[in-house]
Specification:
The strands form eight sheets. Strands 13-14-15-18-21-22-23-24 form an eight-stranded parallel β-barrel. A six-stranded antiparallel β-sheet has the order 25-26-27-28-33-30, with helices on one face. The mean pLDDT is 96. It has three domains: 2-124, Immunoglobulins (Immunoglobulin-like, Sandwich), CATH 2.60.40.10; 141-261 and 294-558, Glycosidases (TIM Barrel, Alpha-Beta Barrel), CATH 3.20.20; 566-670, Sandwich (Immunoglobulin-like), CATH 2.60.40. It is built from 15 helices and 33 strands. α9 (387-398) packs antiparallel against α13 (479-498) and α13 (479-498) packs parallel to α15. With 672 residues, the protein is of the alpha+beta class.
């Protein structure tokens, strides 16, 4: 039985008697709902009823598991941005799951009348799930992010059976969760898991999209990461991670889709309502604006796109259990035709949505478009990836002249970037390496990118990495170089965890994962991109040192201050002080900073009841040993070393000697 059904909610909504279907298209003259069996064979089709710009119907006895798609009849004039072609089977933008595989074929191009149904996945009706009842709710001040790729993290894990490798089930394996808990991270930031496809140039080269930044559905988890039921297995993974006391942060791509540029595949949005979903040139509606570098740009000004993004976020937060989101190329979400605005309606809707009230929001604050670099410009509720932190830390530790002053600003939580807008240090998500660029091991092993395996003549990826190889490009058996590289990796991780702000580790950096100098491994779904867990056995002490650093951060509130401190901050209940000292123990001046390669930062706190805590972090960014005069105490306290990256470090009550390229954290101990 067929009824008109309801225009709300969008998507396929089953009940005990059947399923309601509703899809948006403001340009269609006619929309057909097409049903398929599990083998992808067409079974029935139905015309939908129109209510304003939504097309809908209700099918009795249509149950979860039913595969379907849409065909849209309407104007086809690509030069005017009109691209309705009923020979192209289209995904439901609100589909909760996809069934079947995508294949590159002439039929997926809307310039012909070939039937595309055999070459595209089908939308799948899904049973509604209950919202997640509880979640860890880790405070920002305690958060330590850990960026991982589901497939890359699990494909070579020795504890996993072959069937679990590369899957959501692999990520929730007890051995994986035990390791992460022992490491001390609080929030697993997963690279994109929304359903995505491989770009044509990769398919032609026999490569696959490894990272997942080529989304075709904003509600469906990728079947690539599932053994059978992607929705169920994702929810089970999240529940297991929550049970282990950790959060799940999801990297989401609401800036473009896998439909690409003018000649890309027609899979969903383009065929439904091209001008609604995508930004096009004002005087040339057939030309896509490409602020993403991926061929198209989602039209954040369009109300339906705004609704789609909000609905998707709510679904992943409430139903799929995700605790926060990292927004890829986030300036796109705030783009008008005239440029970026942090008061853009879409950004304001995300920020103020009550149903997302306890979700962490993190921006990648740049895109390739005009005026696309917007670090520090996002709304107050947002945190942001801080590439200035990454570059400054790398430059300081490789010994760049004059790098000390900016390095100190980054240690301080980048107050120069975030404080003026009223945000706290936690807004700065501090990174020294991410999926995009060299791994930490490669930062100290390669001075040039080695991306030949990507098939782009080594022209892709960053040309400037602020890296250093210490005399040999790549792998070496020179013990002195090996030891120096190890210390530099430890220096940068220690800096990350001793800085004000929110730290993020790249998975594998804690044990020396390498991508063999590839700084753009987006197409390396192989042993270049997959973590080599055997590295744990090469230097198990390094992982233990990283655990200790994370523990030190967790147990030292002065490393996790909720407000910026300049000099002294005094309230009725406490006095917090931050000072910068030269190696002679005297306060740093503006004259000192341009030449500074070694210095100390001291943080102290005295509560109203007289309790006191103090730490001193000593940095030696030069290649020579350096003597430090320690801050003098006027009480019974004295300095003791809590961490030293170099075993040769010597600390007594008044002085310290740090070898070249090393860091130490000292704490005050009191004589009883």
């Amino acid at each position: 039985m067929i009824r008109d059904g309801s225009p709300t909610p969008l998507g396929a909504t089953p009940d005990s008697a059947g399923t309601n279907f509703a899809v948006y298209s403001s340009v269609a003259d006619r929309v057909q709902l097409c049903l398929f069996d599990e083998l992808g064979r067409a079974r029935q089709s139905f015309d939908l009823t129109q209510s304003d710009d939504v097309w809908h119907t209700y099918l009795a006895d249509c149950r979860p598991g039913q595969r379907y798609g849409y065909r849209v009849h309407g104007p086809f004039d690509p030069d005017k941005g009109l691209r309705c072609n009923p020979s192209k089977l289209l995904l439901d933008p609100y589909a909760r799951a996809l069934g079947g595989e995508f294949a590159w074929h002439d039929a997926i191009n809307d310039s012909n009348d070939l039937n595309s149904a055999a070459y595209v996945p089908k939308s799948v009706v899904c049973s509604p799930d209950e919202p997640f009842a509880t979640r860890p709710d880790i405070p920002w001040s305690e958060t330590v992010f850990y960026e991982a790729n589901v497939r890359g993290y699990t494909m070579r894990h020795p504890a996993l059976d072959e069937v679990d490798r590369g899957t959501f089930d692999g990520m929730r394996h007890k051995a994986v969760l035990k390791y992460l808990r022992a490491l001390g991270i609080t929030s697993i930031e997963l690279m994109p898991v929304h359903a995505f496809i491989d770009e044509k140039h990769l398919a032609d080269e026999g490569l696959r999209n490894f990272w997942g930044y080529n989304t075709i559905s904003f509600f469906s988890p990728s079947a690539r990461y599932a053994k059978s039921d992607a929705v169920l297995e994702f929810r089970q993974m999240v529940q297991s991670i929550h049970d282990a006391g950790m959060e799940v942060i999801l990297d989401v791509v609401y800036n473009h889709t896998g439909e690409g540029g003018t000649h890309g595949p027609t899979l969903s949005f383009r065929g439904l309502d091209n001008l609604a979903y995508y930004s096009t040139e004002p005087d040339s509606p057939g030309t896509y604006i490409n602020d993403t570098g991926c061929g198209n740009t989602l039209n954040a000004d369009q109300p339906q796109v705004q609704t789609l993004v909000i609905d998707s976020l709510r679904y992943w937060h409430e139903i799929m259990g995700v605790d926060g989101f990292r927004f890829d190329l986030a300036p796109v979400l705030g783009r008008h035709n005239h440029g970026f605005s942090n008061s853009h309606p879409l950004l304001e809707k995300i920020s103020s949505d009550q149903r997302l009230g306890n979700a962490k929001l993190i921006a990648e604050p740049w895109d390739p478009g005009p005026g696309g670099y917007q670090l520090g410009q996002f709304p107050n509720r947002w945190a942001e990836w801080n590439d200035r932190y990454r570059d400054s830390v790398r430059r300081f530790w490789r010994g760049d002249h004059g790098a000390g002053a900016d390095f100190a600003k980054r240690l301080h939580g980048s107050a120069d970037v975030f404080e003026a807008s009223g945000r706290s240090p936690s807004a700065s998500v501090n990174v020294v390496s991410t999926h995009d660029g060299f791994t930490l091991n490669d930062v100290v092993s390669y001075e040039h990118r080695h991306n030949g395996a990507n098939g782009e003549d080594n022209k892709d990826g960053h040309a400037h990495n602020y890296s250093r190889n210490y005399g040999v490009e790549g792998v070496t058996d020179d013990p002195a170089i090996i030891e120096l590289r190890r210390r530099q990796r430890l220096n940068m991780i220690a800096t990350l965890l001793f800085s004000q702000g929110t730290p993020m580790l790249l998975a594998g950096d804690e044990f020396g994962h390498t991508q063999q100098g590839n700084n753009n491994a987006y197409a390396q779904d192989n042993e270049i991109g997959w973590l080599d867990w055997s590295q744990l056995d090469t230097d198990p002490q390094f992982v233990q040192q990283v655990r200790e650093l994370i523990r030190l951060r967790r147990e030292t509130p002065l490393l996790r201050m909720s407000e910026y401190v300049h000099g002294k901050r005094e309230t009725q209940n406490e006095l917090i002080e931050l000072t910068w000292l030269g190696t002679d123990g005297q306060a740093m001046t503006d004259h000192d900073w341009p030449e500074a390669s070694a210095f100390t930062v001291v943080l102290s706190e005295r509560s109203g009841d007289g309790e006191e805590a103090a730490i001193a972090i000593l940095f030696n960014g030069s290649d020579e040993a350096c003597a430090f005069q320690l801050p003098q105490r006027d009480d019974t306290g004295f300095w003791t070393a809590a961490f030293c990256s170099a075993v040769e470090t010597v600390v007594d009550t008044r002085n310290a000697m740090l070898p070249g390229y090393s860091i130490s954290l000292l704490r005050v101990s009191f004589v009883s």
